[in-house]
Amino acid sequence: MNVELLINVTPSETRVALVENGILQEVHIERRAKRGIVGNIYQGKVSRVLPGMQAAFVDIGLDKAAFLHASDIVPHTECVADVEQEHFQAGNIAELVQQGQNLMVQVVKDPLGTKGARLTTDITLPSRYLVFMPGQSHVGVSQRIESEEEKARLKDLAGKHIDEIGGFIVRTAAEGVGDLEVEHDAKFLKLLWQKIQERRAANQPCSVLYEDLPLAFRILRDYVGTGIDRIRIDSRQTFQRLKQFLQDFVPELTDKAEYHAGDRPIFDLFDVENEIQRALDRKVELKSGGYLILDQTEAMTTIDINTGAFVGHRNLEETIFNTNLEATQAIARQLRLRNLGGIIIIDFIDMVDEDHQRRVLHSLELALGRDKARFSISGFSSLGLVEMTRKRTRESLEHVLCAVCPECQGRASVKSVETVCYEILREILRVNKAYEADRFVVYASPRVAESLEGDESHNLAELKVFIGKEVSVHQEALYAQEQFDVVMM
């Protein structure tokens, strides 16, 4: 399989496309205005100690001083099993830090409003499968990995790389990975920590020692060992920085990176722009003539499969089976491309043959095999639905690129032209009873105005006779379909 990463960089936005065998599979987007500082490591300086709050303010070079609570000054590990640690009671803040003291701190919460960033001295460095804990000597395993056998296996793998430099937490994403992937991450994190220590020795207080990697760098870090054949970057400056990053941390990918200097935009190479637009549509066409309908809600995502124009060549059951089988490939791709997570309900076309059901489920599992997000698939329910879950790794493509429709306010539908016309007629009757007026003027959207003077003209004429007054209609090009005004004259 040929795998390429296309990296498109502009001053305001970075986009990364993962293309497998010429077909877009994943899109990652990061906008500069929405980048936070969580995960950044600073050489800070204590500017003020507040015993009454058991906290201190630390200058890390930002506009507002950051906040460090006494409970965040000692190492702590969250959401991890098998980690041996002392039961620590936070001491007096005045005994833990002093004004003017230099501290290495990490941001755990972005500044918000008038509040500065929240800090901790418990430094951690994440990678794809591991979290590095400097100075620790143990291995923790994510509680979300349910199998005790798998926990033990991963603990042994990570334990091979523990030394005096630090220990590790094995992340949920590591479930099922091998020794090589764990080794890649461990080496990367230790080298990164060494670079941070060197910067600390050279830098002055109130300076940044480590910034969580920008999108392009994070992608390359997370895709180490996944068989990338080519990396194309359309920004010369970013290419040079990425080249240095690869040489320092991922040398096996260095020769695969190249600067894209062609006249043709990099995302046009594999029709990426159009694929992104299509990934925002509800309907996904299948090659056979069938189609999927995807609806994303707060609670879950539903996927409905239909045969559409596909009639098959044998019998109905075979047609249904082949459509469902084809749909499994499309579903797996759409989940990755749109980054849909949480609960997913799939309504396959009803199949009578249990062997067909089993083969469709098997095909779906195989199709999801290259998905890095953790997933779980249940069998067919009594209603013929397949329930599955997919781990949320980031916001869905729709949430990143789209906002609530100002016209329908997120309902995903608007009142029909006919409905709005009848609302206008009722409004005229209401106003006529409540107020004295010689005549009425209706201002409405072009489609509604045309309907009042066309298909609904007979109803408007009857209304005029009933109230004994003239009603005129005017088009307002800027009005939404549901918007109208009834003006008394």
Automatic annotation (TrEMBL):
Keywords: Hydrolase, Magnesium, Metal-binding, RNA-binding. Its EC number is 3.1.26.-. Residues 39-128 form the S1 motif domain. GO terms for molecular function: hydrolase activity. PROSITE patterns: S1. Its cofactor is Mg(2+). It comes from the Bacteria. This is Ribonuclease G. The lineage of its organism: Bacteria, Pseudomonadati, Pseudomonadota, Gammaproteobacteria, Alteromonadales. It comes from Corallincola platygyrae.
